[in-house]
Amino acid sequence: MLTKLRDPQKAENLVELCEILNEWAEAIADPHSGVDDYNSDLTSLPTFGGREVNDTTEVWSWDADNLLINGAQITVYVSGWETQPRCPTCHEAVFHCEHDND
Ligand SMILES: [Zn+2]
Questions:
Q1: How crowded is residue 76: how many other Cβ atoms within 10 Å of its Cβ?
Q2: 100 CA from centroid of ligand 1 (Å)
Q3: What is the pLDDT of residue 62?
Q4: According to the model, what pLDDT value does residue 71 have?
Q5: What is the DSSP letter of 23?
Q6: Is the confidence at residue 94, as pLDDT, over 90?
Q7: Domain boundaries, the chain
Q8: Residue 61, helix vs strand vs coil
């Protein structure tokens, strides 16, 4: 079965980009999909405004309020792509800063 997957480079916002990448991840995980890799250079995904991220380690894209992460890289408890809020103090990823935002 040939799966019609959307192009991550054409995503119009961070939530849509996250959805598209999860569709790719699912297809890659499915041995019957005929898809074995992303069609796109994941190190040059589009970003959607907001302050430039200084530490982009494990940060794949962003908008003004949220970052795109690949959950499986951060914790074994989460798989797939997800968005998470930026630190409201420094606007970096919460796993890269020392601010206590609880
Ligand atoms: Zn911070």
A1: 7
A2: 8
A3: 98
A4: 73
A5: H
A6: yes
A7: 8-85
A8: strand
